[in-house]
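Each field is listed here:
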Amino acid sequence: MKPTVFIVDQPRYNLAEIRLRARELCERAGLQVRGASVFVKPSFVYPARPPRNLGINTQPEVVAGVARALRDLGASRVMVGEDCLVGPSESGFLAMGVLPLLRGVAEPVYLQDEERVEVRVPDPLVEGSFRLPKKLMDADLFVSLPKLKVNMYATVTLSVKNHMGLLLAADRLTHHHYDIHKKIADLYRSRLPDFVITDAIMAGEGQGPMHAEAANLGVLIAGANGVAVDAVACRMMGYEPEEIEHLTHLAAAGAGPLGLDEIELEGAELLARRKRVLARPRVDFGDYDPRLTFLVGRELACPQGCVGMIRGTLDSFLPPADWKPVSGYNFIVGKPVSDLPANLDRGKTFVIGDCAAEHRSRGTFIPGCPIPPMAITYALLKRGVFTPVTSRYRDLGWGHLAHALGIKVR
């Protein structure tokens, strides 16, 4: 039987409307919710508030609307679990402003501190086991709520990529390089979602995931087979699903189809009238200010890893931001890198990642394969260079305080 994917009009972030749409989608898909415990996974990758996060994070109205719909359908327990890239898990929930909308409906689950269980994956491509939240594995149903956006590391962020947020930070970095698509495919098979509702009301284009700009698509995309949902979502973005390596791995493994002839598509007219092709991220350095120097390995320099980590930091300085704070900085990344200029200012040179370790004496060496996402930001802060942020320091501060004191923020 062909999996069904639904595309439905939803032109605005209105909680009552999304609650109704989500309930209808679950009913049309035949999702058995009554009496079930449900683990819901949105995407709160960057703790910024609207409107800056419209193209980056699953919006609060979608999260709360789905949670309320699940309650309407008789769920015995609804858990909303997520982590945060900047600061502890609590910071993401605080910054999103979602907690007041969940009170009395769903419980927040701060993944950074959750008990983990090891889950093995049969016939893995690169990674055969993952430490996943016990509450996820014990739940009767798993509902994924990804944001539809482009991603410089993984090409797109959709339901399959949304699984990466289930991992602890250290586990997330393993194979976060040229093998990232294989890792994502392995991880996805560790716990398949029972239902997906993709936030494509405002999508993200450009320098996603962290610096995506909002693009109005005005739809929700849903279904019980995440691979099929992502295949339709890719077409909505202007990609062919065969361009997305983790989807091709999963299709080859029988996890879901990519061709429209293999999918029962309800709302096909919305796909046909798509008016916008999302801008794809740049993963080179050709658009950067000439006052920055990049010395890049000829054979290995991973956009999915260390190169992406450099861009993820420096993209915050793109216009209209001011390049002056990072003027004169040098970045050595990848291998082999030969013929280094003799006059590099060691105080303004970063040697990024294990591949470039032979040049560690030429500047500040940041080890890793890849380096941690915030490592360059922290190194710049030590030099008095403050990277532009759109997070509210109050959200970050309260998140750190709550985490340190063990306060359950609700």
User: Anything to note?
Assistant: The chain has two domains: 4-272, 293-382. Residues 163 and 187 are 7 Å apart (CA to CA). The chain is about 30% helix and 20% strand.
